[in-house]
Amino acid sequence: MKRSFIKEILRDFWRNKSRFLSIVAIVALGAGFFGGLKASSSDMKMTVDDYYKEQNLMDFRVMSTLGLTDADVQALRAIDGVSAAAPAYRIDAVLSSHAEEDGQRVMRVHSLTEEDGINQCLLLDGRLPQSADEAVVITGSLVDSDYQIGDVVTIDTEADEEAKSALDVYSFTIVGIVRNPLYISTLGSSTTKGDGTVSNYMYVLPEAFVQDQPYTEIYVRGDFSDSLYTFGSAYEQQADALEAEIERISGAACERRRSEVVQSAQDALSAAQSTYEEQKAQAEEGFADAEAQLAQAGQKLADGKAELEQSKKPRWTPLSARRRRRSSFLRRRRPHMTRRWPPGMRRRSPRRRRRLHRCKAA
């Protein structure tokens, strides 16, 4: 009975062998496709995990609205479980464009983290920057790929005052094409400048930024990053514990930074107030000297006017008693004869004229 049943099944397979082979092929294709999907997902995650480890991708990015200082870097390095903490600068800058149809293109400028080597760039072509006016740009599907080695990227300082105050160099020569583990997604970044979209990403040396400004961000890497699988549950647990430690010290760090900013503003205000008081005292002293000089000049002017008025009055010559008796007749009959005449123009009296006439006759 059993033997007959098996023969019947084999006869059915033989009579419908085309259907049987089609079903077998469909099942095999589906199983293979499913197995490939399962394997490819794991393979891609392992590939990304290896890439992250090779380029030392950060585990956390610490940012602050008031900026970050070296004290914050040291505080993060002191946390148990942190293997490296590297400060960095970042700014979204509007580029100068010679074509109206290009609009305002925005470049996100990063500083290379030379210390601790977190978020290392993978060099594809050219070389890394060696001076402050050199840069490398990222290539990929999420950015504009029209930049070539040797091109010059210029920041529009008139349209972007923030970039002007944050950067020491405004023109960069592209010396290399790179990839960076921070930007592996096909989705671009948004910005508040230009047309609202970041067109490309550029890496420069830290010397291209103003050095006395606070850091924009600090990259933190845990000591478990190299040993644990990035997409595993063990990594998630370690990362959560480290995040809790960072949040624990964040309150004191924010208060310290706020105190530093307030103290800096108060020092600047005190210095400005002191300068104002000094200049005010100097101005008041100058005003007092000017008023004294003005009073002296006014007195000299008054004296000059009085002297001028005195010089305009007629002058009288004092007469002796004899001359007064002799000239009394003249004052009664000729009052003008008592005036003092200039030398050579004095009028002679009648008696003097008679005396002179007798002398000439003798």
What do you see in this structure?
By secondary structure, the protein is an alpha+beta fold. It has a domain at 90-210. Helices cover 47% and strands 18% of the residues. The protein is built from eight helices and ten strands. Helix 1 (2-15) crosses helix 2 (17-54). The longest helix is centred in the C-terminal third of the chain and has 80 residues, at 233-312. The N and C termini lie far apart (208 Å).
Helix-strand makeup class:
alpha+beta
Q: How many strands, which pairing sense, and closed or not: the largest β-sheet?
A: 7 strands, mixed
Count of DSSP H/I helices: 8
Average of the residue pLDDT scores: 81
What are the segments in which pLDDT stays under 50 over at least 5 consecutive residues?
none
Proportion in β-strands: 15-25%
Which properties best describe this structure?
elongated, 362 residues, 18% strand, seven-stranded mixed β-sheet, alpha+beta, three-stranded antiparallel β-sheet, 8 helices
Q: What are the SSEs and their pairings?
A:
Elements: H1 2-15, H2 17-54, E1 60-68, H3 70-77, E2 82-88, E3 90-94, E4 106-111, E5 122-126, E6 134-138, E7 152-154, H4 161-166, E8 171-179, E9 198-204, E10 215-222, H5 233-312, H6 321-326, H7 328-333, H8 350-361
Parallel strand pairs: 4-9, 6-8
Antiparallel strand pairs: 1-10, 2-10, 3-4, 5-8, 6-9, 7-8
